[in-house]
Amino acid sequence: MSRPPLSRDRVIDAASRVADASGLAGVSMRSVGRELEVEAMSLYHHVASKDALLDGLADWVFARMSTPATDRPWRGEMDERAHSARSVLFAHPWGLGLIESRRSPGPSSLGHHDAVLGCLRASGFSVPLAAHAFSVLDAYVFGFVLTEVNLPFQPGEPAEAFVEQLSVESHGPLDETYPHLAEMIAVQITGRDYQYGDEFDYGLTLVLDGLEAALDADIRGGG
Questions:
Q1: Angle at 210 between CA 83 and CA 123, to 5 degrees
Q2: pLDDT digits (tens, 9 = 90+) for 97-116
Q3: Residue 39, domain CATH
Q4: Does 31 fall in a domain?
Q5: pTM for the full predicted model
Q6: pLDDT tens per residue, range 169-197
Q7: Per-residue exposure over 161-194, b if at least 16 CB sit within 10 Å of its own CB, e if not
Q8: Domain extent for 34
Q9: Other CB atoms closer than 10 Å to residue 220's CB: what's the count?
Q10: Interior CA angle at 29 toward 27 and 34, to 5°?
Q11: What is the distance between the alpha carbons of residues 162 and 105, in angstroms, rounded to a whole number?
Q12: How many domains, in total, are found in the chain?
């Protein structure tokens, strides 16, 4: 059975699989060619360079995120977009350092940014406040995922083993050496099905509440 012809989309999809397996450091024209079972030189008919390949990967990430609508309330749209971005970036953590670093953003990236700003503007955000909101939301989502993917235990894995290790390495009872940390562990973690990922909604609500208050103040002040 013959392989489907090469296309830019197939090349970028293959690059995403290489990145999933080996990280961005493993992405090269040669490694993507191996993934597609073709010579690396044949890829240049579809992507001009390694930089163009990375630009395409960044756009690939944005294409998988929820795009806010301008005719719906901003809070629900930003909530959905934040959850979508978290899910995509958790599945493809190599995207964290990539998506905001490209000098040649593609149509999915530009369209996504425009849609976020358009949703906020349609809901009454001034241009400066929309920019602040976009920055704060991305900082929260990206920072949360960065922490989540680097935790010393996996999602669904009980944290008790890690807590026991802390007790051993503190060379004494944890509550004597680090009483506030021990208190938090006792209340939040020990004997409970604690998942760090459950913190996401709480923090996101705080961010959205703060933006809602800022919007109300801006409108009252004639901003």
A1: 75
A2: 999 899 999 999 999 999 99
A3: 1.10.10.60
A4: yes
A5: 0.90
A6: 766 777 888 889 888 888 887 777 778 89
A7: eebeeebeeeeeebeeebeeebeebeeebeeeeb
A8: 8-47
A9: 8
A10: 85
A11: 41
A12: 1
